[in-house]
Amino acid sequence: MFNKITDELLPILAGLFVATIFGFSFLFTKEGLEVLAPFHLLGFRFAIAAIILTVLKILGIIKVNFRGKKLGVLLLLTTFQPVAYFIFETLGVQITSSSEAGMMIALIPIFVTILAAVFLKEIPSKQQVIFITISVVGVLFIIVMKGNLDVKGQLKGLFILLGAVISGGIFNILSRKLSLKFKPVEITYIMMVIGAVVFNGISIIQHIGAGMLKQYFQPLENLNALIAIIYLGVLSSVLAFFLLNFMLSKIEASRSAVFTNLTTVISIIAGVVFRDEPFYWFHIIGGGLILLGVWGTNYYGNYEPKKVVSRTYKT
Questions:
Q1: Residue 301, pLDDT score
Q2: What is the DSSP letter of 149?
């Protein structure tokens, strides 16, 4: 009985931690972008994450072994997450606010549910569809009611963030399938290494073109930039992705993805408290609908933990 409760509770707790960390990540991304260019920030972020995981691997704290495993699909996953996702997210956050970025990212469950039904045959129950819809309505309600924004700039930022939403949905599906062949830490490790190589590569080329390669590490002298890089690199990239991949290995994709809606509420709170972003009555209503959707989707979940655990790797 205790093991059953633990199997059900741990993925939920992991999802809550992921939502909290990702919720604040928009704020720290916004802070970092005030000092660093998008690819420069991403390069430092993933470099720190890759270094930490490599050290843990060398010390034997984590075990990563790709010997005899087909890496083709895993490399395909990295093109969507972190490469495509973070290009769209970071550029989108640069144009919009941290709150609005969180709202858009909450739309990921729509794409995950559709893709999971088609490719994973994970058909959500009618109750789950209703509550997923409720949470999405909450997000759309906030966006529509925020009519005081510059429409042209808002639409551009939202379309860019839509690319992140689509990439995130595909990542959820691929990660779910890969969890049967790779341990969560292996998925996380290769994601951080690829991210570090790709984003630093782009940033270095940009610095060479601008004749500023000698100043590549200069932004690290700025305290705000350093704090943002550490938060994004250690918490958002290492801890959160490990928890995310763990969660995806335990429960179905459509159910786990709804935690991104909780990220929306946290991102709004973080933006209001720490960046003085405006907070209106429709944020309360929209946020309430999002939380209701998160609760309902999990309450009416119909997964069987023991069956899932028996075919996954333990870390």
A1: 63
A2: S
